[in-house]
Specification:
This is C1q domain-containing protein. By secondary structure, this protein is mainly β. It contains no helices and 13 strands. The two termini are 28 Å apart.
């Protein structure tokens, strides 16, 4: 049994926690960061973003070696990815980040323009229906060369929010 924090007054029936049996949401969630090494990103080339440091994985569905989330069950999942990027030059540049599902670009596209030679942080969030066995990764592109920073700001996470009712 997982211990629930006693810092907040609540009734067990009012909250969801890992192992909670009411409803149809399973214990599927993970979070991974890149705090090991910067990842070089060439200009105008889409690259998979690496998140090698797993912080937690409730259902053993995240592979830090391939930075891939593979849900074990069908359901609706909330996905979030964030990247801290340091450009090699000063000036205007655009970052674009997407979720890849089975190597195809799917929803969650975020594109923003930045200026100067300071780290830029780009975040994208999406709620998607995923099937068991889908392979979910994050990719990004920049109009200038630079490096994805090894930082807690570079992270990838997912949580299952609903299961099929059939």
């Amino acid at each position: 049994m997982i211990k629930i924090s006693t810092h907040y007054p609540y009734k067990k029936s009012q909250v969801w926690y890992p192992g909670h049996k009411s409803g149809n949401v399973g214990s599927s969630a993970f979070r991974a960061i890149n705090n090991t090494a910067n990842q070089f990103l060439p200009a105008n080339a889409a690259s998979q973003v690496l998140f090698q440091n797993e912080q937690f994985d409730l259902a053993n569905e995240y592979n830090p070696n391939t930075s891939t989330f593979i849900p074990q069950t069908d359901g609706v999942y909330s996905l979030t990815a964030s990247v801290e990027f340091q450009p090699n030059i000063s000036g205007e540049f655009t970052l674009e980040m997407v979720f890849l599902i089975n190597s195809d670009v799917i929803e969650g596209r975020n594109s923003e323009t930045f200026t100067d030679n300071i780290p830029a942080i780009l975040t994208t969030t999406e709620i998607l229906q995923l099937n068991a066995g889908d392979q979910v990764q994050v990719a990004m592109r920049s109009t200038v060369a630079g490096a994805i920073q090894a930082s807690p700001n570079t992270h990838f996470a997912a949580v299952k929010v609903s299961s099929p009712t059939t």
